[in-house]
């Protein structure tokens, strides 16, 4: 009896082992078969050949070909157009056909991506280059018989722009070289000439414009001067230029503030000085190295601020053509 039971148990164990082995073999076979099918159906990765639309994307070792990540230069594996597609656009202020429809590059000064209109940060020629619209200078003059506020504005903003040293003569003799100014002249209001305050220097005249006072009354009688009362010398390159004691009168950004209006100044003589104890609501300390494009683009961004934060009055100062005129002469090729 004992022998029969022992034999029966052995048979059961052998059967269980056989079933387990068969199951294991079937499982391995099925798994290997599926993996083999996967390998057979796997599509080989397409080699990357261009950086257009994929600048600075993380490097994927499974994708053959060239690279467009930030480390591609050190490994000398960048695509042929890496520089033109990824580096050059971040330094440009205009759209090109190559940039139209680009993937947004966060480092760019302005954008040519499809979403730039909604984001309000397109390069100024985006519509012309990428959408084929005519340039503003080619459009007919707007009807100013009944001027109205731009959309989203409670009242019309006022922009005061200075092109230092721009002679009235340039508007006649060089009109073709300054089409935007010529268009403003043709479509807006212009004067045949302007009589400068004397001496005809940058600081006395610009501060006269914003205070309405002649130099003898606004405190700035020259770009370089000595005051025996202060026992101090004023110059455009010295620290004394930032001393409010030199600046008399009430600049227009203070007048605006007294009327409940806001001002934004991107450079103007006196705007970065604490005249009468305060600055404009938004102001930029003067830095002649800031590109003109950045100055203009920043003012355009200020114009897009929410109504509660947006200035009503703006100034924008550009050193040209005065700077080149001093270096090369007022009617020289250097000015053009």
TrEMBL record:
Location in the cell: Secreted
UniProt-recorded Gene Ontology molecular function terms: metal ion binding; nucleoside triphosphate diphosphatase activity
Spans traversing the lipid bilayer: 12-34
Pfam families in the record: Phosphodiest, Somatomedin_B
Gene3D superfamilies (UniProt xref): 4.10.410.20, Alkaline Phosphatase, subunit A
Annotated coiled-coil segments of the chain: none
Stretches assigned to the SMB domain: 47-90, 91-135
Any GO BP annotation: nucleoside triphosphate catabolic process
Keywords of the record: Disulfide bond, Glycoprotein, Hydrolase, Membrane, Metal-binding, Secreted, Transmembrane, Transmembrane helix
GO cellular component, one term: extracellular region
PANTHER family in the record: ECTONUCLEOTIDE PYROPHOSPHATASE/PHOSPHODIESTERASE, ECTONUCLEOTIDE PYROPHOSPHATASE_PHOSPHODIESTERASE FAMILY MEMBER 3
Name of protein: Ectonucleotide pyrophosphatase/phosphodiesterase family member 1
């Amino acid at each position: 009896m004992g022998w029969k039971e022992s034999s029966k148990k052995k048979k059961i164990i052998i059967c269980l082992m056989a079933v387990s082995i068969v199951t294991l073999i079937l499982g391995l076979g099925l798994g290997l078969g599926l993996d083999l099918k996967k390998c057979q159906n796997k599509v080989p990765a397409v080699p990357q050949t261009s950086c257009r639309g994929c600048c600075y994307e993380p490097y994927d070792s499974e994708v053959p070909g060239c690279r467009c990540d930030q480390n591609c230069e050190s490994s000398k594996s960048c695509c042929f157009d890496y520089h033109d597609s990824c580096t050059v656009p971040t330094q440009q202020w205009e759209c090109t056909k190559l940039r139209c429809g680009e993937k947004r590059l966060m480092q760019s000064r302005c954008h040519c991506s499809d979403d730039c209109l909604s984001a309000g940060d397109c390069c100024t020629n985006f519509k012309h280059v990428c959408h084929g619209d005519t340039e503003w200078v080619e459009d007919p003059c707007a009807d100013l018989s009944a001027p109205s506020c731009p959309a989203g504005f409670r009242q019309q903003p006022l922009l005061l722009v200075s092109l230092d040293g721009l002679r009235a003569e340039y508007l006649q003799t060089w009109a073709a070289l300054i089409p935007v100014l010529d268009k403003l002249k043709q479509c807006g209001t212009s004067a045949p000439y302007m009589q400068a305050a004397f001496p005809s220097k940058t600081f006395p005249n610009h501060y006269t414009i914003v205070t309405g006072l002649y130099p003898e009354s606004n405190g700035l009688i020259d770009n370089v001067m000595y005051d025996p009362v202060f026992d101090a010398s004023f110059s455009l390159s010295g620290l004394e230029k930032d001393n409010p004691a030199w600046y008399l009168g009430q600049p227009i950004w203070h007048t605006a503030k007294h009327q409940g209006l806001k001002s934004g100044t991107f450079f103007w003589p006196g705007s970065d000085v604490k005249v009468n104890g305060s600055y404009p609501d938004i102001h930029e300390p003067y830095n002649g190295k800031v590109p003109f494009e950045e100055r203009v683009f920043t003012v355009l961004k200020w114009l897009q601020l929410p109504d509660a934060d947006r200035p009503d009055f703006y100034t924008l100062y550009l050193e040209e053509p005065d700077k080149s005129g001093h270096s090369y002469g007022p009617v020289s090729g250097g000015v053009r």
